[in-house]
Design a protein that fits this description.
globular; Arginase, Chain A; 12 helices; 307 residues; 16% strand; eight-stranded parallel beta sheet; alpha/beta; single chain
């Protein structure tokens, strides 16, 4: 099994444009060479741009962007599905968080898991709006709802009409900014949400272990979707929706080791790197470090035990 990077280079779902350049910033970094030096087989499978690039057209932040967002998600879904069917481990690099609809539609379809798939959503926001509740019409605020089966049919029905994630198999981690409409939906569905207040009170490691237990109960496999805005803006300034009071890498990444090394861990997604507003490339460096740590830990647990 190889690790295959998919650059989901769309920014049409975001309010602040620029995340389209996130995958290329990672692609052109030293990450690949660093992984190779450590014996980790990783390759860039594809760099997927939307049918219309942001540089080619000015478009208002409204429902007019939906065809571009849904088409790109469909392309991502097909690429990810084919990678998983081929026995590869997909690593999707965004792009704004709307691309997650494509990522996890592809993974769950390939595994024939659908609502038996666990998903850990690490994010400052709930991302659970629908077009009826969104205050902004930014589609990167809607992927959680879409994966749960709520929202435009062109998103909820990617690859199949089935819901992709069951509410009991979804955990949100690091939330500290949300609106009433999305909060009402997730509360009604019983989704477990680890708010930052609870994480600070109980500790990152304790909360992460509980989150892992939840996403692995009655599921075949699980994946992780990480938005860089989950981190505090002092360490991740290059995101479109920064929120103060976030997580710090020195706390979160060690706590995630149990996740990376779990046998059910099947796909990873890292989104919302915006090179246009990054300060001294700090967020890009953080993204590279996260990806290296994820793949290093997962690779290490797959090595044969020394005799």
């Amino acid at each position: 099994m190889s690790y295959c990077f998919v650059g989901a280079a769309s920014g049409w779902g975001a309010q602040i444009l620029g995340t389209e350049g996130g995958p290329e910033a990672v692609w052109q970094s030293s990450l690949g060479a660093n992984l190779s030096r450590h014996g980790i087989d990783a390759l860039w499978h594809s760099l997927l741009y939307p049918s219309v690039r942001i540089s080619q057209q000015v478009m208002a932040l409204d429902e007019g962007r939906l065809p571009l967002v849904s088409h790109h998600c469909d392309v991502v879904a097909h690429h990810v599905r084919d990678l998983v069917l081929d026995g590869q481990f997909p690593v999707v690099v965004g792009g704004d968080h709307a691309v997650a609809v494509g990522t996890w539609s592809g993974v769950t379809e390939a595994l024939d898991a659908r609502e038996e798939f666990g998903l850990l959503w690490i994010d400052a926001h709930m991302d659970a709006h629908t077009p009826h509740t969104t205050p902004s019409f930014a589609y990167h605020g809607m992927p959680v709802a879409s994966l749960l089966g709520y929202g435009p049919e062109v998103l909820t029905g990617l690859l199949s009409a089935h819901k992709k994630i069951h509410p009991s198999h979804l955990v949100l981690f690091g939330v500290r900014s949300f609106e009433s409409g999305e909060h009402h939906l997730l509360t009604r569905l019983g989704v477990r949400i680890f708010y930052m207040d609870e994480i600070r009170s109980r500790g990152v490691t304790v909360c992460m272990r509980e989150a892992l237990e939840l996403i692995t109960q009655k599921t075949r496999r699980f994946g992780v979707s990480m938005d860089l805005d989950a981190f505090d803006p002092t360490v991740a300034p290059g995101v479109g929706s920064p929120e103060p009071g976030g997580l710090f890498p020195e706390d979160l990444l060690p706590a995630l080791t149990c996740v990376w090394q779990h046998p059910g861990f099947s796909a990873f997604e890292l989104v919302e790197l915006n090179p246009e507003i990054d300060l001294q490339g700090r967020t890009a460096v953080l993204a590279q470090d996260i990806l290296f740590q994820v793949l290093s830990a997962h690779h290490q647990c797959r090595l044969p035990a020394a005799s």
